[in-house]
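Internal tracking record. Fields below are filled automatically when a chain is submitted to the structure queue. Please do not edit lines marked as system-generated. If the sequence contains nonstandard residues, flag them in the REMARKS field before resubmitting.
Queue: standard
Priority: normal
Entity type: single polypeptide chain
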Amino acid sequence: MAGPTTAERGARPGSTSGHAEEDGPEPRRWLARPRPLITLIAAVLLTAGAVWLLYGSPWLRAERVRVKGTEVLTASRVEAVAAVPLGAPLISVDTDAIEARLLRKLPRIDRVEVERSWPNEVRLEVVERKPALLIKEGGKFIEMDVKGVRFATVDQAPKGVPLLELTVGQPAGTQRFPATRLTLEAVRVRGELPAAVAKDTKAVRVRSYDSVSLELTGGRTVMWGSGEDGPAKARALSALMKAAPKAGHFDVSAPTAPAAEGS
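SYSTEM-GENERATED OUTPUT FOLLOWS
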């Protein structure tokens, strides 16, 4: 019986012979080579398309401005100061620059959020400062917020905002605390008053750091003392007013020993 031929002996399971070894894998290797190039070209085209869509297309441009949160300021005034570049690509609108411009030119604004709203709107969310105290100068009133920031001068006093009266007796050069510090103490006291008392407060008077008093409606007065222990003084004053509702003078400068007198 004849043994295996040379071709048969050379053949092994899983192997190919002859033209199969030369021609079989070549087409697959040839087809695989262009794939990285095709991927790169596709990525470049997609990037170019995205850049054009954001910067060159007419669909994603700043076309309108929406202002929210204004109370004293008008939306048109805020929009004018914001100076949003209408017609420019929305992606290129500098929101930080707009925010800085609004805070610099409109001191009444406490904070503002500037956001792009796709596809074509810029939103300005404004929070205005609220006057906590008024300083009368001439026939006008300077509004001051709870941070002690003087942000506006108005012709008429806003309703429900007390006057700040600095009646420092010592000469300016001999004062222990400067007027700016005493003003901040007054703002601090105003911010810690009970809501019912704050509503009835007509004036906050400051003679010195530890001598702050209040003038209330109905001719009532409150000796507050210094700005320290504000929450304890607020609680003591609320309790005292309930216990002696007809009193004309209240003293909470020592909150552990409050006193009321007069009727």
